[in-house]
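Tokens for chain A. Residues wanted.
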């Protein structure tokens, strides 16, 4: 995929991925984690933006997603919304920077990986439970049982907080400068 096409959502970006996706499904996985270059930079999960939530080397919570500047990631309203929400929480360092599988694996091995999730228009937010990489299945931190009907709570995993808050905004249950109610039914 050329750098120019990586920044535009067109069929040509996704058509060649269908066979690889079918192979992943045949092996029991739901999505393909797209890696770029010899360094195995994390790009997207299926057609979703990928987020890695970890503790950095100083122990601070950091939400990492690949930057748009590399030309391999599609911008999106859900991606931008999650970044803005994370910044509004005030206790999470938000980073749009390259992240490699080596860094993710190291964080997992050091017990610094908190969670990984994909995000996009269709699913809003979807947690990642495991990743098959270099012949090994990496089991990510467990995903707790989810009560999607309960309001967002500070004890919720980050992906679930995001899911609940965005859905509450979508359906007018939470006021937001992002949305204006045009008809009160």
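Reply:
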């Amino acid at each position: 995929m050329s750098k120019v096409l990586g920044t535009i959502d067109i069929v040509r970006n996704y058509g060649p991925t269908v066979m690889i996706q079918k192979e992943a499904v045949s092996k029991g996985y739901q999505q393909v984690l797209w890696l770029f270059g010899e360094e195995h930079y994390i790009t997207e999960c299926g057609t979703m933006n990928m987020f890695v939530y970890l503790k950095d080397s100083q122990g601070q919570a950091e939400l990492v997603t690949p930057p748009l500047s590399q030309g391999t990631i599609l911008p999106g309203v859900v991606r931008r919304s999650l970044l803005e929400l994370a910044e509004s929480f005030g206790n999470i360092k938000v980073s749009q920077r390259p992240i490699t599988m080596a860094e993710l694996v190291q964080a997992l091995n050091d017990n610094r990986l908190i969670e990984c999730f994909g995000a996009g228009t269709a699913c809003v937010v979807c947690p990642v439970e495991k990743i098959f990489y270099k012949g090994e299945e990496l089991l990510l931190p467990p995903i707790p049982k989810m009560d999607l009907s309960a309001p967002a709570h500070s004890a919720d995993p980050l992906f679930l907080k995001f899911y609940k808050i965005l859905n509450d905004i979508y359906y007018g249950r939470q006021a937001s400068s992002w949305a204006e109610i045009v008809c009160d039914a």
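The first strand starts at residue 33 and ends at 36. Confidence is low (pLDDT under 50) at residues 1-5.
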